[in-house]
Structures are given as structure tokens and as C-alpha cells.
Design goal:
The structure is a single chain. By secondary structure, this protein is of the alpha/beta class. Helices cover 42% and strands 20% of the residues. The protein has 10 helices and 7 strands. A 7-stranded mixed β-sheet has the order 3-2-1-4-5-7-6, with helices on both faces.
Length: 255
């Protein structure tokens, strides 16, 4: 049995199951680990380079579903300074960290809504763009959530979605970030972060267990695309990303 497949993944939070991510605990070290992860930074770039192509209105309405600590909205706000952003996430700590970042933006035009994606409601045709990055796999039932998202998007608007669809190998990810830290001369920073962020490894192991038990959705690229089409989206782009662990889709709502 490999390191990441051990069954016993204890938690200090009795309200969280052993095969479920404790997002509050994860949030404390999330941004530091993301900063050391080139694959994460590449995901953001994949979004940013598409914005000029989409010819979005200057005052676009944008929703980030499962927005975490706000990295995507912060990055996007520089390209769309007049846009209105809605940040949706159920986790208190993630939202607190995001709020701190948004307060430092030149135009902090972001509304934070603390709620589960399954419960949140918006009027039909509210947004020019909805983003959902590595969140849908943990939001069930996925079909119902995707159908709801589609109703929120204006005709001609888009969904930018990345979803973690393959079994996570915690040790392999750890070694990957170690190699990248050696390349970028950030090994000391990585070692310090790893010592401080043992919680991240614990939570990643819990995520792997959730994939094994069926709590978290696993899918191939083709299965992901078919699910999006089944929900009425026109899939413009579809390909694996995030080192093959996730899939990226750009979808449009016909109008």
C-alpha cells in the first residue's frame, strides 16, 4: 500500500469525515503551496490568455464558484478592472483570506457569498463568465450543479472550468514540487513550507481517500466533456491540464 493510500487519516475536526477535505485546515497553507506549484500558476495563465479573445464587456459580471482564497479573481481583476465579481465559497477561512486580498485591489469590486454551491441561487442570465476551478469534483450532484450554472450565464457567455478528475497521488505531487523548487532555487522555502504545512499533505491524503470511497467525482476527459454537453453547454475547448490530473473546458451558452 502506498503512502497516499493509507486508510487512517485522522482529523481534529469531528464534524468532518475521514474521507473528506477539512477546508479550514487546508486554507492556512494553501497559498504558500500554490506559489511553489508551477502547474497551479499555469492554470491561471490558461484563463488570462483567453480573456482578450472572448471580447467580454468592460463591465462584465463574473462569478467564481468555489473561489477559495481568491487567486483567480485577483488575477482577472487586472484585465477587467471595471468588472463586477462574485466570489462564492462555503469555507469561512478561505473567504477570510480572500477578503484580505480583495481589500488590497485597486478597485475592490468583489462580493463574497459564503454558501454551498448546491444552495446558492442567482437569477437567470446573471453572468458573462462563470469560473469553477478544481471545485466541481467535490460538489455533488454534479449534473444538477452544472445545469444551474448554465442558467446563470447570459447568452453568448462562457463557463471556464477546470476539474480534478483523476486519482491524486500525494507523494508524486510532493516530489514534483520538490523538483520544481530545486530548479527555481526555492528549496529552502519549500522545505520550510513542507514542515509548516504537514496539514496540506494530510488533507491531500484525505482527498485521495474520498476519491477511493466515491465521495469525490473521478472522470476521464471524454466523460467530463460528455457531462458538460449533457447539461446543454457548447464545449469550445476540452483538454487535460494540471499535469494530467485535471481537465479544462471552455463552454459557451448559445444565444
Amino acid at each position: 500500500m502506498s503512502f497516499e493510500e493509507k486508510d487512517e487519516v485522522k482529523t481534529d475536526n469531528p464534524s468532518v469525515s475521514s474521507d473528506e477535505m477539512d477546508w479550514d485546515a487546508y486554507a492556512e497553507h494553501y497559498d504558500e503551496m500554490c506559489a511553489l506549484n508551477p502547474a497551479y500558476q499555469n492554470n491561471i495563465e490558461l484563463l488570462l490568455k483567453r480573456i482578450p479573445i472572448w471580447n467580454m464587456p468592460a463591465n462584465a459580471k463574473v462569478c467564481d464558484l468555489g473561489a477559495g482564497t481568491g487567486n483567480y479573481i485577483c488575477s482577472l481583476s487586472a484585465l477587467l478592472p471595471e468588472a463586477d465579481f462574485v466570489h462564492v465559497d462555503f469555507d469561512t477561512k478561505m473567504n477570510e483570506l480572500a477578503s484580505q486580498k480583495y481589500s488590497r485591489l485597486e478597485k475592490p469590486n468583489v462580493q463574497i457569498i459564503q454558501e454551498y454551491a448546491q444552495r446558492i441561487e442567482f437569477p437567470n442570465q446573471s453572468f458573462d463568465l462563470v469560473m469553477c476551478v478544481n471545485a466541481l469534483y467535490a460538489i455533488s450532484p454534479q449534473l444538477e450543479v452544472l445545469q444551474k450554472i448554465r442558467s446563470w450565464i447570459k447568452p453568448g457567455g462562457r463557463l471556464f472550468i477546470i476539474d480534478f478528475g483523476r486519482k491524486q497521488r500525494t507523494l508524486e505531487w510532493t516530489l514534483y514540487i520538490l523538483r520544481e523548487s530545486l530548479k527555481s532555487n526555492t528549496l529552502g522555502r519549500y522545505a520550510k513550507t513542507l514542515i509548516e504545512a504537514r496539514e496540506v499533505l494530510k488533507q491531500n491524503r484525505r482527498s485521495t481517500k474520498g476519491q477511493i470511497t466515491g465521495r469525490y467525482w473521478l472522470h476521464s476527459t471524454n466523460q467530463f466533456g460528455e457531462t458538460l454537453r449533457q447539461c446543454g453547454f457548447l464545449v469550445e475547448e476540452l483538454f487535460p491540464c494540471y499535469r494530467g490530473y485535471a481537465d479544462l473546458a471552455v463552454c459557451r451558452v448559445s444565444g
